[in-house]
Design brief:
Elements (H helix, E strand, L loop, with lengths): L1 H29 L9 E2 L6 E4 L1 H20 L2 H23 L5 E4 L5 E2 L3 E10 L5 E8 L7 E6 L3 E10 L4 E4 L3 E5 L6 E7 L4 E5 L11 H7 L5 E2 L8 E2 L6
Parallel strand pairs: 4-12
Antiparallel strand pairs: 1-3, 2-11, 3-5, 5-8, 6-7, 6-10, 9-12, 10-11, 13-14
């Protein structure tokens, strides 16, 4: 039917529009910065909060409870509703404080070959006297396997390793990171974006089968006077044949 044929197109356009709006929001948040100098500190204005699906359901339940208490004039219903509402407000504060003023510094990224997985090490510093729990880091456009979740002890540091595929040789910059948390009740999600100045060196992928040497080079390589040993434990080099 014509209507059914148009449905995937409408759904795809809606996803593309949402993706463009999200990227525009992220560029506004980062103020068009490609990379940020370390350490990256998540100040209050960089942390955003929104309810999770569980939080939306919690708010809807509170509305139903409030309507029931008004309809039946239940004093205990009012007390329970406002008690749970106050719990939700406190959860917003604790979720926000669990992420605010977190410091992120780049660590080491060992060189890899093309086709392998690069691992970026990040150092998260907690200057507060309370523990930060369930801090998750996710790379932009990465699968769930490219994320890490950790707890940071009070006045201490923790390291997180984020894997990402290295498809091409050259310098691989660290993608944009989303730092988020839903602690303690999972009703509110607080998140922030960061782009630390970090990159990983990707070497060319080694050939599966080496190209055989030319006959002249192989013959010259077998001549002992043209061979010199560079250092103990390393194979000798045919210096006279190398310029050819």
């Amino acid at each position: 039917m014509p209507g059914r044929a148009d449905e995937p197109v409408v759904e795809l356009n809606g996803r593309n529009r949402f993706g463009r709006l999200k990227e525009r929001f992220i560029r506004w948040v980062l103020r068009s910065k490609t990379t940020e100098a370390s350490p990256v500190i998540l100040v209050q204005r960089r942390v955003y909060v929104l309810p999770t699906p569980a939080g939306v359901g919690f708010a809807f339940s509170l509305g139903v409870m409030l309507l029931g208490a008004i309809n039946y004039n239940l004093s205990l219903g009012y007390a329970l509703t406002f008690l749970l509402a106050g719990l939700g407000v406190v959860d917003i504060l604790h979720t926000f404080r669990n992420l605010a003023h977190l410091s992120i510094s780049p660590g080491r990224a060992e060189p890899v070959f093309a086709g392998e997985t690069a691992r970026f090490t990040l150092l998260l510093d907690n200057t507060r006297t309370e523990e930060r729990r369930q801090i998750s880091l996710q790379l932009a456009g990465g699968a769930p396997t490219t994320s890490a979740t950790l707890d940071i002890p009070p006045q201490s540091s923790a390291t997180a390793k984020l894997p990402t595929p290295a498809a091409r040789r050259g310098w691989l910059p660290l993608p944009r990171i989303t730092i988020a948390t839903t602690w303690p009740l999972g009703l509110i999600r607080a998140w922030a974006y960061a782009v630390p100045d970090m990159r990983c060196l990707v070497y060319p992928q080694p050939a599966a089968r080496a190209v055989p040497l030319p006959i002249s080079l192989r013959c010259a390589a077998t001549s002992w006077p043209t061979r010199r040993v560079t250092s103990p434990g390393k194979p000798p080099l045919a210096w006279a044949a190398m310029p050819r």
